[in-house]
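We close this part of the discussion by returning to an individual protein. The encoding preserves chain order, so positions in sequence and tokens coincide. The sequence in question and its structure tokens are set out directly beneath this paragraph:

===
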Amino acid sequence: MERPVTLAAPPVTIRRIRPSDAAALERFYEALSDDSRRTRFFALTRGLRAGQSAAFCATDHAHREGFVALVHDEFAGRRIVGHLCLEPAGDGTAEMAVAVADELQGRGIGRRLLDAGVAWARSTGVTRMTATMLATNGAIDRLVASLGLPTTRRATEPDVIGIEVDLGPAAVAPRAA
């Protein structure tokens, strides 16, 4: 009996998004499967328009932030294989949204993006991160749960779930004595 082989992710660099990433971000979203774009944007779309990608890449790094995961492709150079967007949602809260290239999902890239987002959020005084997801999106639900932080889930619509992650002092694991 053959066993499926899970390949390790190629070496990935996580960094803050830059205005110069706009065209690469458009290519990243265009390359996602229809299903991945639907679960990210809650709509069928071919990807981002130029204005949308420019807006995602124009963060102020104090209230809005974004991170990209990059791999080196021998033919195309560096390419974006993941994106985390953090938008202010008031009262110490940031709304998060994440996407990872279909062929690299389940290999820790989303978790590394979220770890970078949590570190940024805590450094800027954000105490709560929220996300809205389709109820059928178990992968994102597991990804958020893997943070090990206090999390609340609630149905907001019949097929939509809101998630709230507590980043406050109570969420920090106690230090070993």
Observations:
- The helical segments are 22-31, 34-41, 50-57, 109-123, 138-145.
- The first strand starts at residue 13 and ends at 16.
- Residues 26 and 48 are 5 Å apart (CA to CA).
